Each structure stands twice: as structure tokens, then as C-alpha cells.
Amino acid sequence: MDPLSVKTEDGESAPFSFMPSSSSAAPARQLPPQLLMVVLECGDCIFLYLRHGSGGDLVFETARAPPPGNRIVQPGFHLAIDPSSRYMVLGCAQDLFVVYELESLDVLNQQYIRNERLVPVRVQRPRSVQGVIHKVHFLYPRPEDQHHVILLLIIVRNNKSRMVTYEWELGDDLRRVFSEEKHGHRMPVANQMPVLIIPLTVRSAFIAISQEQVAVCTAGLYGPPNFETMEMENPRPTRNYHGRQRPLWTAWARPFRLSPYFERRDCLYLAREDGEVIFIEADSESALDRSTFMDKFDSNISGAFTCLFDQYTDVLVLGSESGPGAVWKVRATLRTSSVG
Predict the structure, then answer these.
(1) CA–CA gap between residue 151 and residue 165 (Å, rounded)
(2) CA neighbours closer than 13 Å in the CB half-sphere of residue 171
(3) pLDDT digits (tens, 9 = 90+) for 142-165
(4) Neighbours of 294 (CB within 10 A)
(5) Residue 41 class from Cβ within 10 Å (0-12 exposed, 13-18 middle, 19+ buried)?
(6) Which of 61, 97, 307, 327 is most solvent-facing, going by the fewest CB within 10 Å?
(7) Pairing mode, if any, of strands 335-338 and 78-81?
(8) CA-to-CA distance for 150 and 153, rounded, in angstroms?
(9) Between these two residues, 295 and 335, which has the higher pLDDT value?
């Protein structure tokens, strides 16, 4: 098998290396501003970043964080990253999840400058639960409270789903935060098994998408959650759909916007398996503001769906598990409909 390589824009490639360079660190070298984390089903976390080799080529460096124990079954079944990139959660299919506190980028950069082995994980804390772990996500805190961390889990037990939240501040002792199991609140019948959970950047809310309906959940941190059904136009299935029931919403993506925008508003693209895509806008007052249906895309859409940055428009990349995909630039004028 050919070794993995880094492909550059000019078509050249550099060798893939799992071993740190033995050359001495240059005083001016800096850790890249972003690290990629890949989690294996066994729970091993591989942190990757790129650096320039001695010949000017690009090579991969890695740091590995093993799971907390060898007896844990499938600790990489679920993965969630906190918006601040300081915490992550790995969840088993049932009975257990593990919370990791990560080192800050400043600390990792100092390790890198001193040519030390990178240690991205600061603390890890397992927490047992009773039931099947259906979903794991971090919610967004208020803009004025960026040190607030909110973890959301949906646990299924005895054929009933419960919404469980854990809250803490950056740097709190995780042993104390997860000393007791929380039982949370029962989910509404129509939202028992959501296909998608989409955290919103406003009001610490999230969208729950099930086969029956699309709903937004608010007030989940201070009492029983409030689920409001999202009333919107439901277009007929396109010619790409061959099922008997209603097509499912299968993927979503948040487009690039300047950071001040997300302090009061949020927006995202929601994709349906038959090629329908809707643009949803939310604000801090009404949670969901309006929805915009786009032209039908002549492609099925599964998990292959994202939005790329462009200076003047959003660029959608979409595709199915077996079939052609597409790259689309979003037009400025779209048909809109209000969200009730």
C-alpha cells in the first residue's frame, strides 16, 4: 500500500510521517492555529497537525490520547467538541461517556516551541449512565458567558428518551461536576428519537429533527424543556426519492459569518435526503426567524454535506453514499417563507 501523503494545491505531495522530527526546534516556529482530531471506534484519539519539514515539504505530526481503560466497549461511538475547543466527549453506545478537558492552544504552543511531546489532554473523567446513549452534543453559551460549558445527552431507557444536561465553568473540577448521574427531563413523544440535533448559537437552544416533525427546544437549562414545532412548507418529494414515507432530513451545515453575527443571530443549511435544502435563520428573540427554500438539487444527500467559505457567497458541497454529488454557489435571490 502506498504511504499517505499531503497533497498541496500545486499538485506536489509530501510524505506522511507519524514520528516527530528529530531536528532541533527553530526559535520562531509556531504551532498551527488548528489541530485535527480523529477518533477511532476503540477510543484512541489522534491529534494531527502539519509542519514544514527540513526540505520545505509538509509532513504530519501526531499526538495520541488513549481511552481511560481497555475494558470500555466502543468509547468512540459518539464524539462532541465544545464550542471553545477546551472540552470533548466520547460516548459508548450505552452505559458510559468520557469527558476530556483539553489543554489551551497557548500551552500546546509552548510545548511545541520547546520541542516537547504534545500532550493535548489535561484531564479525563468517565461517567456511567443507565441506558442507551442516543445523542451527545455541546450547546452554545450566552455571548457574555463564554466560560460556561453545557453538555447535552439524550438517553433512552425502557423505550423512553430523556434529555440530560451537565453544566460547569471552564477549569472546574470534572470529578465534582460528574460525581452524580443526572436523570433529566422526559422528551416529548414526537421527539423521542431525533434523527438530528442542531445546537443554535443563540439562547443555548437546539433544533430537534425527527421523522415526524422539526422542533426547536428552549429553556432546557432552567426547568422542563420547551419544544416548539417549526411550522414550515413541506415540499413534495423530488424525483430522487423512491420511498413510501416522508423523506428524512439527513444533514446540516453552518455557513461562515463574521463572529459578531453569531452573537445575536444564527443561520444554517438543512438538507433532505431527496435533494431539498432549506436555509434557516434564528435570532436571540424568537429563536427561529424564517426559512428559505432553495432550488431542488438533482442529487440525493446523505452525510456528505458541507458549506465552504467564499468571499461573496456560500458554496455548498453535497452528495450521497452511492451516486453523483455536486458543488453549488448559492444565488442571492431565494424564495422565502416565514417560520411560525
Answers:
(1) 5
(2) 3
(3) 888 889 999 999 999 999 999 999
(4) 17
(5) exposed
(6) 327
(7) unpaired
(8) 10
(9) 295
| Residue type present at position 329 | K
Cα–Cα distance between 73 and 92 in angstroms, integer?
7
Beta bridge partners, 206, equal 199, 217
Neighbours of 260 (CB within 10 A): 9
Here the cell at position 210 is: 425527527
| 91-120 pLDDT per residue, tens | 999 999 999 999 999 999 999 989 888 999
Would the pLDDT of 67 be above 90? no
Contact 21, 53 (CB under 8 A): yes
Compute the average pLDDT of residues 195-221.
88
Within 13 A of 192's CA, how many CA atoms are on the CB side?
7
- CA–CA separation, 111 and 266 (whole Å): 36
Give pTM, 2 decimals: 0.86
